[in-house]
């Protein structure tokens, strides 16, 4: 791992950026739910791409294993911060199953993106 501190810091941003988008778009959750879900998927994916490029951008090549690890760390950070806000005691009052099906699954985009970026960089570096 290049930098645990950097990976953890970017992981918090990986949660914060889509959270802000979700907060701003929240009125659409009831009035236009499919639009809200699409906005959130795009926000999570775009954030993962930007942060993945920032994480790997300073180094030549990439390691596929590291791409997966960073993505899983960011996924875990997002769920660990987000789930308590959304579960039964939170404002959304969702069950764990409902949370994972509705929100948690969207966060799976993160390791998919970081793995893809690392693989593309590794391929470009001839590894």
- What series of H and E elements makes up the topology? HHHHHH
Number of strands: 0
Instruction: Return Rg in Å.
Output: 15 Å
Contiguous helical run count = 6
Q: What oligomeric state best describes the polypeptide chains here?
A: single chain
Mean pLDDT: 89
Short structural summary:
The chain has helices at 4-25, 27-31, 33-56, 64-86, 96-104, 109-124.
Structural features, described:
With 127 residues, the protein is an all-alpha fold. The protein has one domain (4-124). The protein is 78% helix and 0% strand. The chain is built from six helices and no strands. The longest helix is centred in the middle third of the chain and has 24 residues, at 33-56. It is elongated. The two termini are 17 Å apart. The mean pLDDT is 89.
Q: Which features characterize this protein?
A:
mainly alpha; 127 residues
Give the topology, please.
Blueprint: H1 4-25, H2 27-31, H3 33-56, H4 64-86, H5 96-104, H6 109-124
Helix pairs in contact: 1-3, 1-4, 3-6, 4-6
